[in-house]
Amino acid sequence: MTSYESGGNRLSGIAGRPAATAWPGGILQVRVPLPFSLKWVNSYLLRDERGYVLIDPGLHTDEAVAAWKGVMDEHAIGFQDIHTIMLTHQHPDHYGLAGWFQERSGAPVYISAESYAYTQRLWGDDGGAAFAADLTALYTQHGMPSQVVAALGPHLDSFIAKVSPQPQVQFIEAGQTVRMAETDWQLIDAPGHAGGQLCFYAPDKRWMICGDQVLPTITPNISAVPGEDDRQLKRFLLSLRELACYEVELAFPGHREPFERFGERAAELAAHHERRLESIVLMLRESPGSAYSVCMRLFGERIAGDAHHMRFAMSETLAHIYDLEHKGLLARRLQEDGITYVA
Ligand SMILES: [Zn+2]
Q1: What pLDDT does residue 9 have?
Q2: For residues 314 and 213, what is the distance between their CA atoms, to the nearest angstrom?
Q3: Would you state the pLDDT for residue 232?
């Protein structure tokens, strides 16, 4: 895999890595810092004769804005050079700066309709109040203690500033082809991690911009959330199988570094979830319990006291439990204090 650093090779402050890496074909990878253990999100600037398409600009924090200013100065990119903004999906670490860039560049922002609907449930007119109420009710029903649930509302609210100002959007959908970096890219529906997520595939180059669907050294979060169907894990696994059929020489993920062996990585992720399903069955066979008890047995100390990780862990656990319920491998028992599961 070849990459080359360009310009002054300014460091990002993220694990000694450069703030940006130029890849052949006019793709600039920008590491935009995140205040989470994920460390950074990858934004991509795809150059053409009109300027740049900006993909997934990052979360709106002071650190992210400072990083962007540094990269744009170093590469002599002005806001007016950005003619289009594309979003793979709605998560705040990808969507958060879209409106900020739109205000400065005037560029249209493209996202799938399903992804956009989710942003409005979380950060729309009611400030996410209905979503937060539904989420806390769901977690309570599945055994999460009240003091743990209580931290979730303020945590969810804390994202509103990090996705503001919000963009005016236009919709794109799977099956369309878009032109970026003088290359045609096919839009592929990639659900499971985020409903409505799109991957971008360039058949001529065998490149895949894959959002968070396939990540090289970490596993994408699969979340069951209220108001969506309970087949997120199944949809994710089906999507991995479909994506693995594409010939990919280089994948550009939302986190960590661009990588080869895309199909193998998709298979590894599928195997990871199969193992997790098996371990949940074994746990509940040994001792029945709530989804929260399974969550703590799976993730334990790693997430205690951290609302951000707790939410991912709990929804990930639920996505697996729902899958096992659908397969008839678990049964739910409705008790006075909530739902418990037996295998
Ligand atoms: Zn994501």
Answers
A1: 61
A2: 19
A3: 95
Q: Per this entry, what is the length of the chain?
A: 343
Ligand 1 mean position, distance from CA 8 (Å): 30
How many angstroms does the Cα of residue 189 sit away from the middle of ligand 1?
14
Render pLDDT for 174-216 as a digit per residue (tens, 0 to 9): 999 999 999 999 999 999 999 999 999 999 999 999 999 999 9
What's the pLDDT at 214? 98
Q: What spacing in Å lies between the alpha carbon of 221 and ligand 1's midpoint? A: 7
Contact 265, 216 (CB under 8 A): yes
Q: Ligand 1 centre and the CA of 49: distance in Å? A: 30
The kind and range of the H/E element at 48 are: strand 40-48
Å from CA of 332 to ligand 1 middle: 29
| 102/83 Cα distance (integer angstroms) | 9
All domains in the chain, ordered by first residue: 11-342 (3.60.15.10)
Phi, psi dihedral angles at 341 (to 5 degrees): -120, 145
- CA–CA separation, 99 vs 102, rounded Å? 5
Q: Is the dihedral of CA 303, 308, 309, 315 positive or negative?
A: positive
Q: Are 172 and 188 in contact (CB under 8 A)?
A: no
